[in-house]
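[recover] target loaded
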């Protein structure tokens, strides 16, 4: 089986890129082959472990053809990026032209059995339009639904061709419902298959405790991830014995705001910046509590990675989170109910103080639990970890590939 993977952004820097590489790794282990089309900055070609350089076609941004940075599925990416809402008519033509050339070349050279695209947006629509006779399967990562909502000028084109995709993978049942409503796609075309994690890197080891509770935030430093909310909550309990580790990066005013707030915590915070998966694994094995206070998410890999590493988790009760993590004990995972939001990833100003108070209380409670028992015993949490390894996730995706092959 020959799979052509298609993603519009850097495959080595984002959750969807990690997902893509994990699928390529599982395919390779089963003696299937991979080919890749991806968007990257000029002079910044990635070195991917499971897809050799001669099996990649890159579309280069910040080049003579595409003069703007890589378009990001999030408005703040961990690298320089541009916004889909700023993809005007001229940029859109250039974008489609550049990717059309790369896609046609890849298909001519590789002759894929299946094309697996990522994100229900412009590039997936373009792929479907160009190759109506090749089976196309698309993984929705959630961020694409946000872009679809925010970018009215792209909707007609995206909806027209995404409706023609053969199979779609949603990460949660709630997300499946959103796809059906937004794109008017038949539910029979959509299968719900979660993200996963690498159990060779992320696994439990005994948690040590010597007076200080270690708290981890891993992700982008911006407002939609709830980072200012987290930092303001911790400022209220500086007298407690904890240390915050922040792993991630960002750009612009929101990043600057996060860094300014973190400085108010003094020596109780360590900014690690962008970290590799192995470095993140080390931090997770050390951390007692992982906090992800996002206002909007698809289904973040870091929660699976943290849970597998033995972290207790505090996160927001977003779409799909209750479905996957709700069976764990409250001693292990706390889901914070969000109020109605002003925008898809922004609370009303009058709710911000109440949210800080709620998060502060959850952190205090979790710190108390860690002091009583640094390690937890939770069979349901163990089951969640066992069910969402990349191998388990790929077995479900492989069944989708087989459906497509049988229908050819």
């Amino acid at each position: 089986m020959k799979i052509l993977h298609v993603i519009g952004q850097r495959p080595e820097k984002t959750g969807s890129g990690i997902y893509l590489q994990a699928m390529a790794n599982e395919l390779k282990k089963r003696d299937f082959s991979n080919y890749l089309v991806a968007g990257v900055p000029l002079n910044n070609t990635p070195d991917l472990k499971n897809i050799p350089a001669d099996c990649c076609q890159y579309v280069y941004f910040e080049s003579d053809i595409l003069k703007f940075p890589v378009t990001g599925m999030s408005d703040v990416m961990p690298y320089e990026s541009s916004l889909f809402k700023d993809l005007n008519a001229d940029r859109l033509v250039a974008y489609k032209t550049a990717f059309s050339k790369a896609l046609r070349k890849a298909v001519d050279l590789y002759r894929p059995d299946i094309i697996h695209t990522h994100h229900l947006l412009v590039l997936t629509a373009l792929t479907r339009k160009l190759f109506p006779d090749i089976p196309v399967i698309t993984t929705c990562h959630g961020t694409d639904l946000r872009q679809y909502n925010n970018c009215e000028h792209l909707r007609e084109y995206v909806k027209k061709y995404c409706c023609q995709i053969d199979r779609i993978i949603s990460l949660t049942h709630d997300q499946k419902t959103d796809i059906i409503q937004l794109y008017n796609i038949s539910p029979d075309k959509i299968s719900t298959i979660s993200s996963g994690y690498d159990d060779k890197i992320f696994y439990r080891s005994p948690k040590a405790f010597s007076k200080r509770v270690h708290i981890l935030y891993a992700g982008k430093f911006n407002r939609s991830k709830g980072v200012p909310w987290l930092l303001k909550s911790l400022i209220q309990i500086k007298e407690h014995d904890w240390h915050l580790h922040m792993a991630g990066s960002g750009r612009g005013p929101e990043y600057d705001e996060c860094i300014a707030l973190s400085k108010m915590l003094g020596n109780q915070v360590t900014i690690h910046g962008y970290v590799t998966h192995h470095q993140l694994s080390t931090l997770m094995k050390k951390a007692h509590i992982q906090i992800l206070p996002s206002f909007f998410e698809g289904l973040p890999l870091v929660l699976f990675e943290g849970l597998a590493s033995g972290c207790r988790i505090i996160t927001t009760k977003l779409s799909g989170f209750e479905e996957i993590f709700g069976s764990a004990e409250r001693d292990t995972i706390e889901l914070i109910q969000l109020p109605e939001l002003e925008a898809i990833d922004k609370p009303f100003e009058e709710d911000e103080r109440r949210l800080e108070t709620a998060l502060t209380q959850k952190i205090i409670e979790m710190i108390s639990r860690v002091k009583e028992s640094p390690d937890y015993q939770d069979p349901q949490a163990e089951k969640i970890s066992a069910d969402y390894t990349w191998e388990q996730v790929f077995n479900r995706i492989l069944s989708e590939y087989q459906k497509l092959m049988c229908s050819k």
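[recover] notes: The mean pLDDT is 93.
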